[in-house]
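ok so i was messing around last nite and threw this chain in just to see what happens. nothing serious, just curious
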Amino acid sequence: MLPFSAFQVLRTIILLLVFLPLAVEGMQSGGKPPVIIIPGLTGSELYDTRTGERVWFKLIGMKGEDIRLPISPNLDRNRDHLEPRDILREVSVAKILPEIEIYERLIHALATRGGYKEGKWDAPEKDGWRDTFYVFPYDWRRDNVESASLLIRQIESLKLKLGRPNLKFNVLSHSMGGLIARYAAMYGKADIPPTGSRVPWAGARHFDKIFLVGTPNGGSVSALNALLNGYSHLGGGLRLPFFRRLSRFDIFTLPSIYQLLPHGGTTFAFDERLQPLNIDIYDPKTWETYGWGVWSDDGYEKKFSPDEVPKLRSYFTSVLNRAKRFQEALIAGAGRAAPVNFILVGGDCKETLNGVVIRRDGKKDRWITSFRPDSFTNPDGERITPERLKPLLFAKGDNVVPKSSLSAIQNGANGTGGRTPISAEIFHCEGHTKLVTSPVLQEKLLQLLNPPVL
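result:
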């Protein structure tokens, strides 16, 4: 047996061999760790590879059919000719409204107040690991697991080009982008594991801090509203003139929307007596019962191609099941220590949709699903007023994501009571889109990205 002193020396050498590369990485940098910006739903431009035309986003001539995906039970094969090329930096509304900035102000803040420069994934500068930010455009219509896998592959390729295998990134992820970042940290490039599997944190070695900005960690009732009634705003609450909204038939074809639905075990539906309804939103039978399926609409066959109509239900079953498994994979990390620093950033004062009332219309023999506090008389003859409905239908948040959904990462979105450690929480009275444009929040983000050296 080695003497105690020799053992200590050997132990020190081993620790140095393991951790010295990380320490040297930081000492050699002489600057700030690199940052990745991940936009939210609708936050990446989409181009038609056949024509080179930008399909999303354009104000004039935009049709919902332009961004539909093909339909089949094999979700991985449902691809078209659109590809992401950049994040949505700004929308120019000539002579009608001033330029509406989406992520440009965040980029400007990183460059001017943060001292960062923008880097290129494919051709990084030699010091692209220092004081640099990268934007991550992705096809926001598709499965979030696919986007997470793409993120990890791009990070690995970039680190190889930079010759920095131990480099870690800070991530500014907005809205749905936060779910992509979480999955990437938890599972890396892997597909959704079987239910009950251990979280490997396969991608955690690439990240230091992950900022979840307005991320619906517990899901969003607004996603159900979009699937039933269409989607008429961009990036959460930003309504634009001349923009033709996406119909529910368009939304039906986009797998990512289903992955934003309220998590299982959450209370979000109420009956005509304002009592909680125990419904499984991931069971196709629920959609049949309440007439939520697109096939419940008169003339729905005309909204799809003849080849797609027979596949509607099989596709729907596949995409719902995929969404349920995706959320279960994220929930699996609750209540366990995480090797990544998660930071919550959100709004806490805006009226935000958080519930739905489902009631029976006896005269027309149908179900009514209402996301608005419209008064009605229940079967007991009791008049239900908007004042009584509002506390059930709305909660404090950023007008798209309730504060409770953003914070669901802390207690397990399935109500298990576990707690994923959160390094910091920042709440501010701001709307969903403006969470990334607010100077106040930008300053706090920069402070956490680059804490002072003591």
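not much to say yet. Residues 1-29, 94-99, 233-243, 412-418 have pLDDT under 50 and may be disordered.
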